[in-house]
């Protein structure tokens, strides 16, 4: 059983060590893990509650009213008819009533307000989408930085092994007095320098991994394999699909809905109403007894003149639409400039990579020649290390430029809202 347990544990460790991290997964998990994502349901719920409140205006409005008064005088009839006594109302009067008002037609006011609230919800949701989308820029920076650090560490490891092998060869010559000990010391010092660089790289890599881990919620380790993505882009056409662009249209729709609400204020309002009451006096003013009563009817309310307030408000909204159009135009112009910058970055790294290949071919030839000359004692260890480091830096630059090219392509796509 113990043997099976250790086999299973070893298999599990291998699975962990082989964990692959993909940039698309980082995008997805970042959006899911970001605390703001929880606001999506809250925003929808707030919108639903506001619409529910507006719809309640279509329901009957019921009010309970009660009053007691004492007045200095009451209506009197000065008639002196034999055999008829007209009672005099009491100066203390009481009234309790249940008043019911039912909206029949409001000129489209509530319907317009619903559209305004719907636009408000869309604006809040779109702003949230924009905030979450911007996280992709942070993911790009972290992900490709980690890739570059891992590649640097890998190339330094290869260089360290090459120098270590060279050190083993010359140590025997040092023991036999055939090679100066300073040559071996130079190689040892260079190995220590490489170790220092690798410590710095690994520390920076660990910090970036921890940040990406916190951002995405993925259980990433230093042994995780970061997949180097490949992607093709068509940089000849400018097409902006950023979520911010939708916000401009939604805001304009909100202003249009607001204008409709303003127009509805000029329309008549029709209500049905009813009153059920009890008091003294009742509807019969000649009676001084407590009576129950009711009234039903239809009421029309129409504000025929509001001193051009609606007209002025509409002008304000038209100006605000103009501001939105101007802001959209400015935003598009800025995005066009960002697009041109991103295209220039892609072209730059493409050309640099071609030059890197030429440099690597030359530096590799030089390093091989130096290795042979060093083995035969024609050059010093310093000369040899200079040429080896030159080859290593050429390869590092090549790998960095390759990753930077991919990052430039992803930045291009993210900046245009295509990821």
- End-to-end Cα distance, whole Å, is 49 Å
- The third-level CATH topology is Outer membrane efflux proteins (OEP)
Task: Provide mean pLDDT, rounded.
Answer: 89
Low-confidence stretches: 1-12
Instruction: Please give the number of β-strands.
Output: 6
The major beta sheet can be summarized as:
4 strands, antiparallel
Describe the protein in words.
The protein has one domain: Outer membrane efflux proteins (OEP). Helices cover 65% and strands 12% of the residues. The chain has eight helices and six strands. The strands form two sheets. Strands 2-3-5-6 form a four-stranded antiparallel β-sheet, with no helix packed on it. The protein has a two-stranded parallel ribbon with strand order 1-4. It starts with a helix and ends with a helix. Residues 1-12 have low confidence and may be disordered.
């Amino acid at each position: 059983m113990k043997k099976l347990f250790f086999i299973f544990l070893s298999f599990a460790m291998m699975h962990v060590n082989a964990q692959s991290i993909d940039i698309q997964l980082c995008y997805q998990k970042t959006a899911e893990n970001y605390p703001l994502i929880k606001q999506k349901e809250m925003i929808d719920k707030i919108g639903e509650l506001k619409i529910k409140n507006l719809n309640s205006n279509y329901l009957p409005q019921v009010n309970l009213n009660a009053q007691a008064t004492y007045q200095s005088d009451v209506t009197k009839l000065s008639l002196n008819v034999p055999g008829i006594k007209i009672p005099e109302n009491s100066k203390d009067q009481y009234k309790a009533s249940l008043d019911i008002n039912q909206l029949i037609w409001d000129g489209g006011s509530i319907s317009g307000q619903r559209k305004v609230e719907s636009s408000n919800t869309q604006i809040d949701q779109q702003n949230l989408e924009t905030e979450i989308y911007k996280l992709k820029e942070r993911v790009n920076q972290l992900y490709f930085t980690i890739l570059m650090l891992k590649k640097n560490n890998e190339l330094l490891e290869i260089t360290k092994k090459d120098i270590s092998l060279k050190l083993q060869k010359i140590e025997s010559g040092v023991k036999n007095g055939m090679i100066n000990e300073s040559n071996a010391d130079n190689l040892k010092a260079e190995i220590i320098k490489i170790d220092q660089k690798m410590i710095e790289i690994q520390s920076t890599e660990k910090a970036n991994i921890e940040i990406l881990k916190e951002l995405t919620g993925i259980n990433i380790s230093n042994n995780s394999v970061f997949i180097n993505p490949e992607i093709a882009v068509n940089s000849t056409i400018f097409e902006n699909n950023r979520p911010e662009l939708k916000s401009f249209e939604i805001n304009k729709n909100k202003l249009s809905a607001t204008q409709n609400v303003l127009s509805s204020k000029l329309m008549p309002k029709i209500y049905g109403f009813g009153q059920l009451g009890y008091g003294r006096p009742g509807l019969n003013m000649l009676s001084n007894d407590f009576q129950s009563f009711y009234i039903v009817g239809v009421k029309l309310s129409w504000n025929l003149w509001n001193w051009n307030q609606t007209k002025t408000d509409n002008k304000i909204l038209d100006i605000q639409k103009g501001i939105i159009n101007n802001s959209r135009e400015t935003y598009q112009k800025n995005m066009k400039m960002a697009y041109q910058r991103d295209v220039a970055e892609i072209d730059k790294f493409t050309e640099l990579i071609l030059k890197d290949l030429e440099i690597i071919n030359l530096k590799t030839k030089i390093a091989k020649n130096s290795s042979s000359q060093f083995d035969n004692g024609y050059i010093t260890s310093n000369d040899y290390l200079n040429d080896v480091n030159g080859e290593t830096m050429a390869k590092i630059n090549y790998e960095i430029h390759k990753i930077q090219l991919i990052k430039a392509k992803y930045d291009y796509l993210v900046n245009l809202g295509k990821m």
